[in-house]
Amino acid sequence: MAEQQRRQARPEETHAWEALVATARRTVSDGLVVGTSGNVSVRVGDTVLVTPSGVPYDRLTPDDITGVALDGRQVLGALVPTSELPMHLAVHATTDARAVVHTHAVHATAVSTLVPELPAIHYMAGALGGPVRVAPYATYGTEELAENMLHALADRSGCLLRNHGTITYGATLDQAYDRTAQLEWMCRLWLMASSVPGLTPALLSPEQLAEAGERLRGYGQPG
Fold first, then answer.
1. How many helices (H) and strands (E) does the chain have?
2. pLDDT of residue 5
3. What contacts 24+ positions apart, CB below 8 Å, involve 53-61?
4. Cβ-proximal residues to 92 (8 Å cutoff; 6+ apart), any chain
């Protein structure tokens, strides 16, 4: 019965799926995930397209489109959605996100085990809304993890997940991905700077970070 309730993908969903797969493959080629770790979603209307569970991204085809309604009910495809579906749906339900990227980026994951918040090592933290928090650990794929993540994401567009990785969102797949890449870069920067014996990295003040965040809102080309 459940299979019969699933429908054919619309043209806009097919196009979005192609972009989602390209983004997922980019997380692998850029070293942000290993194997089938991490996952990506993009919202088209009231449908959330997500990477399926346990399928290498280089094997995904247009026929593998996987989509769920906002209540988690599968409406597209036969493959099982990512095990991290609760996190993706929580972000889509509570923010203006159109795309979400979750990775197991190594430097960001390392930082998540060391501090409750990424030290303000660079002004690009302003692009994520301010100091990047670390969500307390919970088993992957659980509602508890999704709840912890939402608290860490309050007024932010990205956070770290303790002993796990990163999650960011944006208005587009490109924006969500760029925020992930920037977060991993900042974590790597802090780890490198803080590892120099006898020296402590200079950090930005809350006022400096807030000012940078304001300027970053107008960054790039108009429109």
1. 7, 8
2. 75
3. 53/79, 53/80, 53/81, 53/82, 53/83, 54/80, 55/79, 57/21, 57/24, 57/25, 57/27, 57/28, 58/25, 58/28, 60/21, 60/24
4. 41, 43, 48, 70, 100
pTM over 0.90: yes
104: helix, strand or coil = coil
* CA 124/CA 131 separation, integer angstroms: 10
Alpha-carbon gap, residue 51 to 38, rounded angstroms: 9
138, 149 Cβ separation under 8 angstroms: no
Using CA atoms, how far apart are residues 63 and 26, in angstroms rounded to an integer?
A: 20
Q: Which long-range contacts (CB under 8 A, 24 or more apart) does 64-68 make?
A: 65/9, 65/13, 65/14, 65/17, 67/9, 67/13
* The pLDDT of residue 222: 59
The pLDDT mean for the chain works out to 95
Q: Which residues are catalytic?
A: 84
Retrieve residue 3's tokens.
């299979």
Q: Which amino acid is at 39?
A: N
Structural contact between residues 40 and 100, judged by C-beta atoms closer than 8 angstroms: yes
